[in-house]
Write a structure and sequence with these properties.
Length: 527
Amino acid sequence: GLTYEHIAAAAQASPEAREGARAFVNAMLAGDLPHLPDLLDSRLIAFAKPAGGVRPIAIGETWVRLACLCGIAATPGIGGTLAPLQFCIGVPGGTQCLVQALRTRMANEPSVVTVGLDFRNAFNTLDRTAALRATKKRMPGLLAMSVWLKGQPTRLLPQGFPAGTEPLLSTTGVQQGNPLSMHEYAVTVQDALEETVKLHPAVAVHAIADDTYLQGCVGEVVPATRTLLGLCSALGLANVPHKSFAHSGNAELGVQAAEALGFNHKVDGFVSGGAGLGTHEFVRAHAQGIADGACERIDSLLALPAATQDKWLVLSMSVQRCMDHLVRVVPWDMLEAAKQTLEDKVTSAACSIAGISNLDDVTGAQLSLPLRFGGIGLQAVSDTAALAAYLSSAATAHGALKGSPHFDDPFGPGDLGDHVREAWEHLHDCGDGLWADADREATEAVIANVVPRAQRDYVHREAEVLRDGLLNRFGNATPDAKHHRARLLSVGCAAASKWLVALPVAPCTRLSTADMQASFKLRLGRP
């Protein structure tokens, strides 16, 4: 029943408790403890997958999870040895790198065939002997703890099942819910990925955990897929043909690959890493579906008999951010309409929560200002800010894909690479002195050191311009203008924004509806 907070409080309050915790964690890392069922038991939670089926998550004791996190922290750099085949650990923006790589190859070679693989309950069916062998090879410092965790069967205690349900025994796989499981899975399948690339060098292979993709011409990608499936089968992984697919911009080639492998043929596109890939219509429809779903959740949120403070926190910290990832990996012309739909809905909901019935220009501008400038922090992505986000993501992927021979590097050779470099020059010009003149050319140094920060730099500048524009509107000497200028400057200090982000976990941080709405109106200069 202990939590991280319990352990931290004890360690901070007592040097003896701190030393005891450190010794206990080190004993687990060294594999010095006997098999302790009460420590090694896990709660089993069955999450429903969006597309159907169940994802079993095993959540172990806090002490064990803490030890795993310490072991991971003591094994830095492992992720860099797995990329660009595997992006799930130690690769900044790994999911974005995957999407950027797939999209780039599809843009540079319209007839390329993309094969996506699905494995049945991959984490829980992985062969443990193979996992321990891979841990010894690639993460030897974690082998002792891995043997202690998996040397004997452990109990899974089902949550939400009828009373009296017997525990299940965990005898295979790596448990999703354990911080170490992603590392163990990744290093175990790495040999299979590397061997496939070695035998089929013309085929690109990229994975994010168990979501695995192969790209190449139909004559190469089909045998490469069979090779990889055979190697994964030896690791205990079973392919699910009806959930695996083949797609190509040339429909005939896509059908040919799908029939040869017994997979589905995705005609218009597919979803990877939360982003749509395929025809422009497919990508737009996928983005619009996400926006529409978010708008429905906002309607449900507003209808809840919940406190105004709770509604605001869910809206501002969660729902409005559900498309942040897409802005970095989907070209803006295919995303703008959907993003605008969500932004309009969020603004309307914020006004409803704040008790504001009509918007004027000043209030609308302040709504989209960051908190640090006295705003409310609602998103309003411009086309240039979206371009900065996309280029930042592309530069991150460039670092992870460096040296790839498969035309999947966004800044690499090919038509898309030329377009991306031109886009950086355009953004540099829009920055109007934000970046040094020498950084206009997308050299390796600029791509590595400047472009990854382009989104942060540009959005910060854009917010400063918006803030300065508001202040200039109050630049004359009338008492009303002085009042509004002083208000905007004063609410930009850190303390004046705490109420917007305070979690209602104690009586002193709970605000009534009347107090919330009065605070919104005072901040926005409304009556």
